[in-house]
């Protein structure tokens, strides 16, 4: 049985969040295709993980036998997150764009799971694990658009998840999500609707294909 690690980071709940709508669709189709599979879920908005502290950082580079009680406690939380990643057969991440980049809660999760000598560097203990990122955004930062140069979500996550952790990264990008609430974007509503529908279709297709691939492995 395959395990899907599902991470959401939007501050908005359920239908109010474009990324959560798509990750929920992905998860639903994955479970329908692979009902024997397991889902491990983390809502980083509801239950943020600890930010890296000096104790957490130093504990990652020193012998556990020398850890102070504070270092041991902090590192234990970090190891739990790392083990969840290592034990996952696939990862699903909701990564809405906030102020041109990812939510700070998602960055905190990445800071915890990227550990040189284990998940990063020459070892990359989760290398090859497929990760699907739902990178929603209120506007459009696609190539050729005026704000192309402000795209720091896909670029960053390609580096952190792909180069850093060695994961197999794939994106679903619902864009123009503010069109229905921002009067200045009213003319873009049809483009938003097309992007939303395409994202949901992509979620269904990618989830089913991934579930079949894992079930056959």
UniProtKB/TrEMBL annotation:
> Cross-referenced HAMAP family, in alphabetical order?
Azoreductase_type1
What species does this protein belong to?
A: Streptomyces nogalater
What is the taxonomic lineage of the source species?
Answer: Bacteria, Bacillati, Actinomycetota, Actinomycetes, Kitasatosporales
Tell me the cofactors it needs: FMN
The cofactor binding remark recorded in the entry reads: Binds 1 FMN per subunit.
Which PANTHER family does the record associate with it?
A: FMN-DEPENDENT NADH-AZOREDUCTASE 1, FMN-DEPENDENT NADH:QUINONE OXIDOREDUCTASE
Q: Name one Pfam family in it.
A: Flavodoxin_2
Recorded protein name is FMN dependent NADH:quinone oxidoreductase
**Residues binding FMN, per UniProt:** 10, 17-19, 136-139
Domain (Flavodoxin-like fold) spans 3-162
UniProt superkingdom: Bacteria
Q: How does it assemble?
A: Homodimer.
The reply to whether Flavoprotein figures as a keyword in the UniProt entry is yes
Tell me which EC number(s) this protein carries.
1.6.5.-, 1.7.1.17
Q: Which UniProt keyword terms apply here? A: Flavoprotein, FMN, NAD, Oxidoreductase
**Role of this protein:** Also exhibits azoreductase activity. Catalyzes the reductive cleavage of the azo bond in aromatic azo compounds to the corresponding amines.
**Family, per the entry?**
Belongs to the azoreductase type 1 family.
Establish whether keyword Phosphoprotein is in the entry.
no
Its recorded reaction(s) are: N,N-dimethyl-1,4-phenylenediamine + anthranilate + 2 NAD(+) = 2-(4-dimethylaminophenyl)diazenylbenzoate + 2 NADH + 2 H(+); 2 a quinone + NADH + H(+) = 2 a 1,4-benzosemiquinone + NAD(+)
